[in-house]
Amino acid sequence: MNTTLCYLDGQYLPLNEARISPLDRGFLFGDGGYEVVPVYSRKPFRIGEHLTRLQQTLAGIRLANPHTLAEWTERIERIIAAAPFDDQSVYIQVTRGADDKRDHAFPQGVTPTVFIFTAPLVTTPDSVRTTGVAAVTAADTRWARCDLKVVALLANVVARQDAVERGCAETLFIRDGVMIEGAASNIFVVKDGVLLAPVKDHRMLPGITYDVVLELAAKHGVPHAVRDIAESELRSADEVWMTSSTKEVLPITTLDGKPVGNGGNAGKPGPLAQQMHGWYQQFKDEVMRRG
Ligand code: PDD
């Protein structure tokens, strides 16, 4: 039984006691947005950026943000403080609420449902990090607003499950010959010493970790380019990484059963991935643990 404190519609209560209506539009239509915020030593990472992205998601689905920045921060801080663990993964969800009937069109005068809960942050074990993970590719069959972090995640869920059933960690979506992102992560490619990042447009989620990685690349003088990455470039890459709030920077060393990279490094985490992981840890340390 999970008795960690959560927040639901104005109340703080144990997670196992939280209840919503079966008419909630999140349940009926997947009508809502969400965020996942990593917390290190009880400090939420880039909380301003996460709340800004939540605002963009809600604006994109025409759902008025029920809280101000200060109200969100206060609620999130209370949930973090009440948890019995220091490093956490905070989940925030807003749905369009529960009407007294089912109708696709937006209901009038219905209060959005707000839910916040936290869990221990699950980090990647060193044994996995040193070998890297396997991934597969699939056609991107999602809708045309993948920049919005909405709870309607069925295509991502099925893609991720396909990966798991093949003993892989992630599925990489390919759309019109272009590598877009992972089912629950952004993807970077390294070719001839240049870090390639996909374009942040409607085709992919603008990752908070993605931004940190590009900032670190700029700070440390790594040559990089933000542009479409062709499927052929993905398949001939020297390195492929996945990034997310919970995975941080994780090398993909096998793609569709073939080793990633060339020569002696084939099938092993590349030097830039290891370097970036180090910079990321250092950055977190400076900003979070001592800040
Ligand atoms: N997912 N792309 C997709 C489709 C994602 O679901 C995520 C994160 C990312 C990376 O975004 P960020 O760096 O801001 O975490 C990219 C979260 C972790 C999830 O759904 O659990």
CATH class of the largest domain: Alpha Beta
Shape: globular
Q: Which residues form runs of ≥5 with pLDDT under 50?
A: none
Number of domains: 2
Class per helix and strand makeup = alpha+beta
Average predicted confidence as pLDDT: 97
Polypeptide structure, described:
This protein is 30% helix and 29% strand. With 291 residues, the protein is of the alpha+beta class. It folds into two domains: 5-120, Aminotransferase class 4, branched-chain amino acid transferase, N-terminal domain (D-amino Acid Aminotransferase, Chain A, domain 1); 126-289, D-amino Acid Aminotransferase, Chain A, domain 2 (Alpha-Beta Barrel), CATH 3.20.10. The strands form two sheets. Strands 7, 8, 9, 10, 11, 12, 13, 14, 15 and 16 form a ten-stranded mixed sheet that branches. Helix 6 (208-219) crosses helix 8. The model has no long low-confidence stretch (mean pLDDT 97). The protein binds N-(5'-phosphopyridoxyl)-D-alanine (PDD). N-(5'-phosphopyridoxyl)-D-alanine (PDD) is lined by residues 36, 156, 181, 184-186, 205, 207-210, 243-246.
